[in-house]
Specification:
single chain; 110 residues
């Protein structure tokens, strides 16, 4: 149970989806006022049995930020490559069009 909270109201499907999409979702903070049992309080209680410790969201934030930055860099590289490919195609198409126009002009002159 990581970030287990109990809320006063029934959450909407979109809220649950947003919370479950990532380990430290911002949705939890947005719903803070409606929490009845808070994860922050649960972790302060004594524990027994098999307990596996997890990093808190504050501790995980630098890792998550780095992962997101890397994903954004990869997407940006793909976009930049696509842009370069499009520019190359445009240059080739312009050259082909110029060649075709030149041939048309020669044909008209004949």
């Amino acid at each position: 149970m990581f970030q287990m909270n109990i809320y006063r109201a029934v959450l909407q499907q979109s809220q649950i989806k947003k919370m479950s999409s990532e380990m430290c979702s911002s949705e939890e903070g947005e719903l803070a006022a409606s929490r009845v049992v808070k994860w922050d309080e649960v972790v302060t209680y004594g524990r027994t049995g098999n307990v596996t410790e997890y990093l808190s969201c504050q501790e995980m934030l630098p890792r998550i930020t780095h992962q997101r930055q890397e994903a954004i860099k990869e997407k940006l590289q793909k976009i930049e490559q696509g842009s370069a490919d499009t520019k190359q195609n445009l240059t080739e198409t312009r050259a082909s069009l110029t060649s075709t126009q030149d041939q048309l002009n020669i044909t008209k002159q004949e």
